[in-house]
Amino acid sequence: MTSTAKYIFVTGGVTSSLGKGIIAASLAKLLQAQGYRVTIQKLDPYINVDPGTLNPYEHGECYVTEDGAETDLDLGHYERFLNVPTSQANNVTTGRIYQSVIQKERRGEFLGKTVQVVPHITDEIKERIQILGNSGDYDIIITEIGGTVGDIESLPYVEAVRQLRWDLGENNGIVIHLTLVPYLAAAGELKTKPTQHSVKTLMESGVQADVLVCRTEHDLPSDIRRKLALFCNVREEAVIQSIDASTIYDVPNLMLKEGLDKVVLKKLGLQSDTPDINRWNEFLTRLKNPKTEITIGLIGKYVELQDSYKSILEAFIHAGAANEVKVNVESVHSEYINKDNVDLKLGHLDGILVAPGFGERGIEGKIDAVQYVRENNVPYFGICLGMQMAVIEFARNVLGLKDADSTEMNANTSNPVIDLMEDQKTITDKGGTMRLGAWDCDLKLGSTVRDIYKSEHISERHRHRYEFNSKYKEAIETAGMKATGLNPDTGLVEIVEIPEHPWFVGVQYHPEYKSTVANPHPLFVAFVKAALNHKKKTSSARMAQK
Ligand code: GLN
């Protein structure tokens, strides 16, 4: 089938971290709001087959799709903006490209030819880019090329884009180049030279940018826009400013004001209309006009980096807007929590979330935190490892199984309340081998979660190797922690809650991956509400004491 889809390639110049993902997602939002079926794909020029094996410190959170792909966190932005699920095909790395080409070579598919970067690697890249277009599900594919032009590792991607533009023909593939226009305070001037150089670097590879999106801290005056247009071979209307915004959710409106959608659609030979972003703007109004605020403690071991818990932080923004509450998230490093300081560290917080994670570092602090919130009726939300910690804490301190543990942390515990899943026991490879992607879950009648989801059956995304050990289910339930969500096929415990507690929910899956602007996740919405109630209750108790 020949594709009728149109392609927009987004490249980056001058420096990394300019926010290509947000620009791509914002443009996609504006196109979607005019009736186009849009998806976004990210090409990452590193040799890891996927980011599943990358340390979040290096590369931020690993995002998981419905079909179980471990992907770049930009895919999270795409889903949060578009409210359309992404898949394996939406994230491709150099590692995956080479793996696939080498496998073909081993199968003898190249018929004795010398296998080379051009054409074999570039052909594989072109094929991967067109998978989404050929599916017939989309009118427009936005392909974001990771890294910065001029990097050695980006070259095959830029070459693939050059070839594809020829193959696709005029009006079917365009290039948006994202650059930085720095402001030199000493000279009091915005500087265009870095942009000129990066556009030239792109041209050396035979690719002319059609649109320039310029990140800037100050408005670009018309003489600067004219200069950029003249030196970079683009029309003045195609010089788009992307000024720093207080929230990423402002960027679609900023791009609308600059006419990015119009320029792009004109270049693609498609009709443009006024985008209908009323619902988006209603969300923004709620986000920007909170009636009150709360502070949630996020307990994890990656507290220094925003990106490590990206989807959780964004889910709080969605849930805060839904409740008209500003949610401040305070990072608390679990390694520094102990029984003696837990009150000091957590006493002022309105709710506690123990984050997902791997390995034993900081585990005891997480368990102390759970004990504190359980005993003091502070709303608790445990995600994945956070749910496992809640089970361990309960087994140790309520059931009295002093050495209860996860076999991930202590392989020799006599009470493995969290244990390796049966089908994980023979697996030794680390990449792509966890329990991944969407799994069904049945919710128990009368449970808090059933009430929150307003549904009996749900499906949520997973990423773990260990599970609640069902041998302990009866004892744990009798003591007051209930298993309220079960996998219908395997009986695996997916959710625990403590009905006696105002709000204590632990989930084995990752609800944060499914929270979007259009559909804030119900568990986050309910947790924020519970934290708000807790705050009201504790402040009126304090008032009464005075
Ligand atoms: N390390 C735990 C497991 O593999 C939890 C994983 C997570 O929090 N994503 O089961």
TrEMBL record:
Binding site for Mg(2+): D74, E144
Residues involved in ATP binding: S17, L18, G19, K20, G21, I22, D74, A245
Domain of life (superkingdom): Bacteria
UniProt keyword annotation of ATP-binding present: yes
Protein name from the UniProt record: CTP synthase
Record-annotated active site: C384 (nucleophile), H510, E512
Other facts: CTPSs have evolved a hybrid strategy for distinguishing between UTP and CTP. The overlapping regions of the product feedback inhibitory and substrate sites recognize a common feature in both compounds, the triphosphate moiety. To differentiate isosteric substrate and product pyrimidine rings, an additional pocket far from the expected kinase/ligase catalytic site, specifically recognizes the cytosine and ribose portions of the product inhibitor.
Ligand binding (L-glutamine): Y57, G357, L385, G386, M387, Q388, E408, R465
GO molecular function terms noted in the UniProt entry: ATP binding; CTP synthase activity; identical protein binding; metal ion binding
Entry similarity comment: Belongs to the CTP synthase family.
